[in-house]
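Annotated sample (chain length 661).
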Amino acid sequence: MSLRLAPLALAAALLAGCAGQTFRPGQLPDGARADVAILETTDVHANVLSYDYFKQKADASLGYERTATLIRRARAEFPNTVLLDSGDTIQGTVLADWQARVKPVGCGEELAIYKAMDALGYDGGTAGNHEFNYGLPFLSQVTGTPMNVDGGVAQRCAGPHFPLVLANVYSARDGQPIFPPWTVITKTVAAYTPDGSKLEVPLKIGLIGFTPPPILQWDRQNLAGKVTVSGVVEAAKRYLPPLQAQHPDLIVAVLHGGLDTHPYDGGMENGGWYLAGLPGIDALLLGHAHTEFPGPHYAGLKDVDATRGFVRGTPAVMGGFFGKDLGVIKLALERHGGRWTVDKADTHSEVRPICPKKNDCVPADPAIAPLVAPAHRAAMAYVDTPIGESALRLSSYFADEGDSSALAAVNAAQADYVRRELPKFHPELAGMPVLSAAAAFRTGFGGPEDYTDVPPGPLTLRNAADLYFYPNTLSAVKVDGAGLRAWLEKAAERFNRLDPAQAGEQPLIGKDLPGYNFDQLQGAGLAYVIDPSRPAGARITALTWQGRPVPAAQTFVVATNNYRASGGGNFPGLDGRNVVLAAPDGAREILAAWLKRQGRLDAAALPPRAWRFAPLKTRGPVVFTSASGKQAIARAAGLEGIRQLRDHGDGTATYAIDLSR
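Output written by the structure step:
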């Protein structure tokens, strides 16, 4: 359904011959109407430009500069608009890392992404979980928000020219929110009386913001002892009353979170379904899940209209990620009993893509690139810094099927760091076996270009950033054999359960566990077997170390990242309590330094592949999707049982894997 501006009817205090009379909202009669389009960006992740820093080329399929074009078009279409952002804004690209870690912006300098957003004139936003990745001092500075927390910036620095609200993160010093929990903005909107007369009227809109409560685990090294966090429902119940006391005409909840209908608890990552059920919230903005709402991903969810965009009767939208989409809620407002109400029959949401079809993308807004040109040039030069060379191809096209080349470099660097640094803090653990866990962050979720691919030849910092996509820090945890097996079982949920007797095609990869949670563990002497024909939780059919079965009580130190070690992904036994090393260094920087020390990377420097599939003969083909035309890469990686079945014509292809080999 396309968005259409319904005839607006709003009570008028200004009639013919009454020019200059003061208009008071209380004079509006029943039957007055107004339409307001709420425009949402979310999970932009500092993709200001349509540019892939890893591949060093333009990429028209993403980028805020194209979302900006959709915003301007929406404003031309709808006289009344409100522009809001749902978080995960300042982190996610080499440009972001450059401005945060390599050459941090000063107090008087605004971040590139905020410069771009200010060019469009936002009305408000909230903070996502990745806003906390660079620490509270940086967040306090670049958002222009003095914070009474350890390391917080006391003075007001350059930040976005719009308010950020966040109701569920509090200073450990005084218990007060680190951002204002809510605000009220006033927009002048075009409106119509019941007789069709038009005039401009004020509309007061309350904004209240929320971030995922698990940030306290995911960014423990940045947040522990400095802030506390509450559930989104608890925070809403605390701060909705004072917001409602300001008598706003509408209240919009801006949540960096998705929809989850499991029983509610205060640590729920995606609490949007429960937030939508609270009285007083007129519209809900969603994010974090890197998908679209309305859309098929949420079809069939209880009390959710995934076609028109309602959650428990509340209009809602989630506008994609990486600047690929613009979310729009068309709110039809009608005056009843002296207040505005939402006419749900004439209200709906939609997600507008920057590329409605392949190779058919809206043009970039020409005003954006000049605003960030100096920072963009600096980031491009930075990623070209040489750090060595490789004799190997390191790719993630077939990481799910057993090509561990890209992960092996990460695991080797992490394990080396832990072996060198751990004895300084825990000499009693110096002789304990060290393993390492890594996941392929880029496995095609964002399209056919969303894979790691480092060819043989010179290595630069760009390649290190490609191999390690997120700005995590390194952690090490102590686990026993039972915990190690549980870890591997959780990772093996990446696969569907296969039926050997099924004659038709069976997809290998399931939908419940994303690629960044498919940890692959490596280490000298570690080997394990995954049998996808068995039920989840019973797929690790062999687990050995140095040729012997791993006893339940045997202990290991496993190098991983802070996200996983602190509970990210809900892996059993990983909740931050068994961390034995929390490194101050970023995992990406550790990898780059290791590659530089290697000089020339070859197979001898990498740990061997630790896992394989159990032999499984199926009647029909077992299939998966990857970038098209990559069969030779699979063969070079030793995966002889993979063949391309059909090219989809969009850069992707369906492959079959013979698990009987």
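Annotation: Residues 377 and 554 are 51 Å apart (CA to CA).
Annotation: The first strand starts at residue 33 and ends at 41.
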